[in-house]
Amino acid sequence: MRRRKFLTLLGGAASLPLATHAQQPGGRVYRVGYLAIASPEQQVHLSRAFEGGLRSLGYRIGENVVIEYRYAYGQLERLPALATDLVRLGVDVIVSGNPANTAAAMNATGTIPIVMTNSSDPVDAGLIASLARPGGNVTGFSSDTGDEINGKRLELLKDALLNLTRVGILWNPDFARNQSRLTSMGQARDALGLTLVPAEARGLDALERAFEAMANERAQLLVVLSDGLMFNGRGQIALLAARNRLPAISAVREYAEAGLLLTYGPDLADLFRRSAVFVDKIFKGAKPADLPVEQPIKFELVVNLKTAKALGIELPTALLQRADEVIE
Q1: How far apart are CA 95 and CA 90, in angstroms?
Q2: For residue 325, which of 303, 307, 296 has the smallest C-alpha distance?
């Protein structure tokens, strides 16, 4: 891989101070609950990013802060019990990822602070009252800045492959945010002269049927609407996209690393790293209700050139020059 220097700027509360300037925690040993829907292997880079954020603030993992990890291994039904277990342990804060994790933590406790790392549209999901005044015991990051970004992803596919017009949309109907995403993509479709071919997948066992449906509708391109389910199945999705020779785009770099052609969206690892700032503030007495939820304001374009070559695609030079990272 080669990577241009890329700086994600996020406003306000989550600006990381230099480690040398971090206030050293006192003698207390803090306990963090870390709730993840994925397996450790699927998101080890995210947990390491969070730990790195804590270290940059002067914390020593295993000494003055202990992290209790709980993984659901892709099984949503396990989240409530795992969240309850963290509450039973009496952790000082729970770090959650996507909306399902955060909702499970909220159902388990109304008092322990919860820091969400990448919940899309947490207001509509009922996780917080507003970004500026979240209320309750939840704060952190919203990874979604609006549905317009899905239109941008369609534009990127169109720019990369000018002569292809039938776009498969792989989506999970059980993820509430996806319906509005589809609506916004329908608006962008007309301006770009595209035909959309939605295909549902409510579980990883439905992915092959979804790809068969798109093939029957002669889909030439693919957009993956990301949620916890799709993120956990990104390796399988990349294999199916390659088998069906579908150039694909999704939200975050992890999909491109798994084998999709393009991704455009926030840097998840950076959000997890910066979530440590919220944890630090809570350790020092801040209330989640008083810490505004933040959004990414910079996005990164990642191109998998290896996938492009396997598909026989010659990407425009202008697109490669715009990319923040090219996987070779």
Answers
A1: 14
A2: 303
